[in-house]
Amino acid sequence: MNNRDYGIVVGIDQYPGLGSLEGAQRDAESFANWLVDPNGGGLPAGNVRKILTRQFHPPPPTCTAQANPNAHRFYSEVGDLLMDSAGNLRSFPIGRRLYLYFSGHGFLGSSNWEEAALYAANASRALPEHIPGTREADAVKASAAFDEIVLVMDCCRDVTLTGRISESHLCLPPDVTRGAAVRTCYAYAVRRGYQAQERQIEGDVQGVFTHVLLEALRRTPGDGEGRVTGQAVKDYIHNRWSDMVPDDGSTGPLIVVDSANDVVLAVRPPGPPAQAGAMPEQPLTQVIFSVEPPVTDSGIIVVMDGQLREIKRLSIRNSSASCALVPGIYKATIEGTSRQKLFQAMGGDVHEQL
Length: 354
What we know:
Number of domains: 2
Strand order of the largest sheet: 2-1-3-7-8-12
Shape: globular
Distance between the termini: 39 Å
CATH class of the largest domain: Alpha Beta
Structural class: alpha/beta
Radius of gyration: 22 Å
CATH topology of the largest domain: Rossmann fold
CATH architecture of the largest domain: 3-Layer(aba) Sandwich
Largest sheet: 6 strands, mixed
């Protein structure tokens, strides 16, 4: 367990003054579940603070002024994390990593920064109460309250809905030296001026970005030392995005990582040597899969190694797919079906029917 990691997860889907969403709260709960999963973030449940619409409104709110959660709810949770019972700041650093996750209506306004803000539930066009997510993360970083900050904002980044994003409400003493060394990974669902998307996925309305992010966190192979870095997750998401959102007019999500000082988001057994870039002298086996009876060309073949770790996802084209593998035992399945097969790669070419 990562006992020194903490998370604050905000999911708002009921906005009387802006129009409601369908999947924001579900997305937040899915991310919170990943945080406490021993095979995910590995946080103790008590280290994750959730701020969700359902905690305040069993029936949907009808009055903007009384809608919750408002911005104060977020600052109350932050205060409980940063301060002791007497209201004094705890000794920094408080822990290793802080996750900040926001899902709901958001905006960029007239800001020239790469940032985003989340509207509070009681926001309206005339009174746009909000949580300046990026600026709050920056304030925590500057204080070195944690060694690492992971910020996820699954919300729109419209540039015309409001004039400006407010400054951070956190008054934390900056630590210039240690703050500069804090590792960060900031992930935004969309780029400047675009709107985040909700879609029907696996029977539920979900935010596309959170769905793909969680898929990446669970499936991105570890490197030679088993580390799943922010850069590796970023690459997975960008490679997967066109499959999930083929009609996206933007260039996909914006994920900002420091490649020289990257965050390790998960640790799992490393993939086979070919995935880690090692042992190039080993002969590779070219595996050609034929799919009989055929499935649609949107089908996916999932290839797993001998320990049933996913190592490749192959798109089916013209009832076939292929890949190169180092010698070993593998399992292939057609995603969403019961069709599967064990096979062995021994060099040369191998033809397998699924």
